[in-house]
UniProtKB/TrEMBL annotation:
Residues 1-20 form the signal peptide. InterPro entries: Allrgn_V5/Tpx1_CS, CAP_dom, CAP_sf, CRISP-related. Transmembrane segments: none annotated. It comes from the Eukaryota. The keyword Nucleus does not apply. GO terms for cellular component: extracellular region. PANTHER family: CYSTEINE-RICH SECRETORY PROTEIN-RELATED (PTHR10334). Pfam families: CAP (PF00188). Keywords: Signal. This is SCP domain-containing protein. Residues 53-183 form the SCP domain. Gene3D superfamilies: CAP.
Length: 269
């Protein structure tokens, strides 16, 4: 539905861009903001406080999902990390409007649980090769996580401690090149988001998955050749309606805000 609307706008305004796939300029990025109702009183996990542990936890858990979906292991990029850290310190409850893919999480006790929350959205994704889910608010964090064309990540965190009304730890991860490239009848999702491989984690190489903690190049996990996505030439300009979910206990609330960068500020619904 969303895709149809994107496409019809592009078809109407820029027929030549649709014909030349390399120049598609529409990109969707997602933000997940998750918080606990009560501020955490337990000590902050070493997955946050120890800088090496932080990077390893991000890469190990991100690359586990990537491995399971036949995407290469990504590496750490300090430019992205600096950006993410700086943005997290504002404790601002929305997307940064930056040039990268971005996932946000809030209130999770450790890094691995945060990344798991993003990755577990895969249960709601339809991997059909002809008509996949594509971009949705409910699965956008997962599709960014396992996006084939993404090569690097960098994250930062801040214990917002009530600043701007935000309790708990605010985790910000940036991805480059950005995933969730929308348009062209989900062409980019078909090329970049793959179903879980048979065998699950079997063959996952923790050493290789965390080798990129100090930078480097992505490591192929075999099977499928990484696909490059077109460079984003436009960043977010409009904010769709927030979507909220409350878990069984009512303790955890997830709010997803979808930001669709559209040529003429069309909102998502
Ligand atoms: C790294 O990821 C693998 C697969 O998810 C997991 O079994 C392992 O415990 C993780 N290692 C660390 C140090 O978290
Ligand atoms: C890190 O990311 C930035 C921003 O995308 C890029 O310009 C730079 O080349 C990257 N550095 C490495 C070592 O990959």
């Amino acid at each position: 539905m969303i895709t149809t609307r994107f496409l019809s706008v592009i078809l109407f305004l820029l027929p030549s861009l649709v014909l030349a796939q390399e120049t598609v300029t529409v990109i969707g990025t997602t933000v997940t903001q998750t918080f606990t109702a009560a501020a955490s009183t337990t000590p902050v996990s070493a997955q946050y406080t120890n800088s090496l542990n932080f990077r390893e936890s991000i890469l190990n858990s991100t690359n586990t999902f990537r491995y399971e979906h036949s995407a290469g292991y990504i590496y750490w990029n300090e430019t992205l990390a600096t950006y993410a850290q700086s943005y997290s310190e504002n404790c601002v409850w929305e997307h940064s409007h930056g040039p990268y893919g971005e996932n946000l999480a809030r209130g999770y006790p450790d890094v691995i649980e945060s990344v798991d929350a993003w990755g577990n959205e895969r249960s709601m994704y339809d991997f059909s090769s002809t008509d996949p889910t594509g971009f949705t608010e409910a699965t956008g964090h997962f599709t960014q996580l396992v996006w084939q064309g993404t090569q690097a990540t960098g994250c930062g965190w801040t214990d917002c401690n009530g600043k701007n009304g935000l309790d708990g730890i605010y985790l910000v991860c940036e991805y480059w090149p950005a995933g969730n490239v929308v348009g062209d009848d989900n062409f980019y999702f078909k090329q970049n988001v793959f179903a879980e491989r048979s065998g699950g984690q079997s063959g996952f190489d923790e050493l290789a998955a965390t080798r990129g903690v100090t930078g480097g190049t992505p490591t192929s996990t075999g099977g499928i050749t990484p696909v490059n996505t077109p460079a984003a030439t436009s960043s977010g300009v409009s904010i769709g309606a927030p979507m909220a979910e409350v878990d069984r206990n009512g303790l955890l609330v997830t709010v997803c805000v979808t930001l669709a960068a559209l040529l003429f500020g069309l909102g998502m619904s």
